[in-house]
Amino acid sequence: MLALVPLVAIIALVALVAAVVWIVSRNEAEQARVKLATDALWVEQTLRLQMSVDEDMLVRQALEAASGTSSAVLDTRTRLHIASNPEILSVVWHDGSGRRTRALPNAGAPGDDELVALLAKPGARGARPVYGDVADDGRVTMGLALPDEAGFVTATVSLPLLLQRHVPWWIAEQYGVRIRDTGGQDFAARQLLTPDPGNPSHTISFDPPLRGTLLQITAYDAPQAIRSALLFGVIAALAAFAILALAVLFGSAKRRRAAEAQLRGETAFRRAMEESLTVGLRARDHDGRILYVNSAFCNLVGRESSELIGHSPPMPYWDPAWLEEIEARHRHLENSKAVPQSFETHFRHKDGHEIEVQVYEAPLIDATGVHRGWMGSVIDITDQKRAARLAREQDETMARTGRLVTLGEMASTLAHELNQPLSAIASYAAGMTNLLGHKELDPVMLRDATGKLSRQADRAGQIIRHIQDLVKKREPRFLDVHLDEVIVETVAFLNADARAHRVLLETDIQPVPPLSADRILLEQVLINLIRNGMEAMADKRHGDMLRIRLHAQGEHAMIEVVDQGGGISDEMTGRLFDAFASTKAQGMGMGLKICRSIVELHRGQLNHRPVPDGGTAFLISLPLASREQGNDAWAA
């Protein structure tokens, strides 16, 4: 029973407040109705007064016309009245037959023909003006006969202008004022909003002076109803809230115990998740002091959490060989904004072996939104780096093997090419020996022969050095390279091979800025593509020309090697750059794969397309990038 006392008290309080609100709301509604009726009567009196003023103007016009006042004086007084009472659209004078004699303004507003015909009848006399019917647009005409049947004068009044002029702003802000007929058709209205039909309104007959018209004033809203509904709603909400609070109070102890048990379970579950992760987690404050580590991080560095938590830099797992770089990164992280960061670094295991790790640092934000430090995810990439280095060494070996295979295939051609300068050297040496045997030695002839011998020796040396560069094991070196020179030297190196294949090498070289590249690797790509083209033209050809073009396209240098061979079958198109895919019977299928790897090492692309007249075009696209980008690509 005691538990029901608060509920009964709340219900009694709500009932008492509701009663007070109902009484107050009823009084407010009654006051609003009284105020509406008072304002409606005030508006009616104001409009009737203004209509009387306009009627008096007609009466004065008639009396002054009968007393002999000139038309000019009457017109001046009429203009003054129209200027101060803009609801008067026009004033018109008629003769006894109803014909207009003059009007102000000169054109005059359309009048009421029925009223004019009525006033033109003999004996249509009266002391006050007579009103016609109200037109649909709110115009109404009133007329008054002049004494001695000298005619009559009419005035057209605009009811919309009448309301606009003489209904004050403080009325218009509260009510909508309308003049309408008994059928509900509006002739004139002054309202800022469209009142709701259900809002309080007050209607007064406006006949006379206007036959069959009503003056209606409607409030824009019913504030007392809104306030009452709002108060009742608030009271009901408070009562419901109080009852709900009691219900919640009764069950709060049970829910609190359940929440605590669930919280303990969630904490244990999250701890189990953190401990089961293979990614090391590490939380640090802005000074670098470790706040938290999970078991994966401890296993990574070979230390217990008690050794690490609370430890400040330098950390025991930092690699002494990378200490300067790690400290510089730590200082940068202290001064940087709260944005995620990623970097690679080196740790030292407790047993002494080196660990390569990838660290992802994210801002550590507490429950209040304050940046407390950094949360790091540490991934061991030692095996991944080792595999990448092994793959790079294999690519180097494959590229070198490809160069050796290419030179082996060109051995006879290179021997012939090397034999030419050697034969020339032998010939010049024999000639010089003969010259030295003559008694009269000609120094000019001897100097000429010596120069030719030296040039042939240089030519032989160039061939040997070129071969040596191709077969020598070396690290890629990215330097500024002029592609036009690379193409010219490569074509000169392959001219002998081209003659053996009965192929003419043609170059179309346009100016291209130098780019960062490894000259020997690019020569290897060009040698492979040009020799592939010559071999493709050996069996089936559509011409004897193999073209090498160089031009710039946007931010890229484009090299095209276009042969006139039999082309590439549809079956081979999709796997042309795969390992061990070859269009040659004796080919290993590694040449184009090596070429693509070299081009991608330079951040470029190697593609091919068929030539409409027959043959294949290989396209090399190389970015005009900086040397640092090339070196970064190789290091990656």
UniProtKB/TrEMBL annotation:
Signal peptide: none annotated. The chain crosses the membrane at residues 229-250. Residues 413-626 form the Histidine kinase domain. It catalyses: ATP + protein L-histidine = ADP + protein N-phospho-L-histidine. One of its GO terms (molecular function) is ATP binding. Pfam families: HATPase_c, HisKA, PAS. The keyword Nucleotide-binding applies. InterPro entries: HATPase_C_sf, HATPase_dom, His_kinase_dom, HisK_dim/P_dom, HisK_dim/P_sf, PAC, PAS, PAS-assoc_C. It is an enzyme of class 2 (transferase). Residues 341-393 form the PAC domain. Its EC number is 2.7.13.3. PROSITE patterns: HIS_KIN, PAC, PAS. Residues 265-337 form the PAS domain. SUPFAM superfamilies: ATPase domain of HSP90 chaperone/DNA topoisomerase II/histidine kinase, Homodimeric domain of signal transducing histidine kinase, PYP-like sensor domain (PAS domain). GO terms for biological process: regulation of DNA-templated transcription. Keywords: ATP-binding, Kinase, Membrane, Nucleotide-binding, Phosphoprotein, Transferase, Transmembrane, Transmembrane helix, Two-component regulatory system. This is histidine kinase. It comes from Paracoccus alkanivorans.
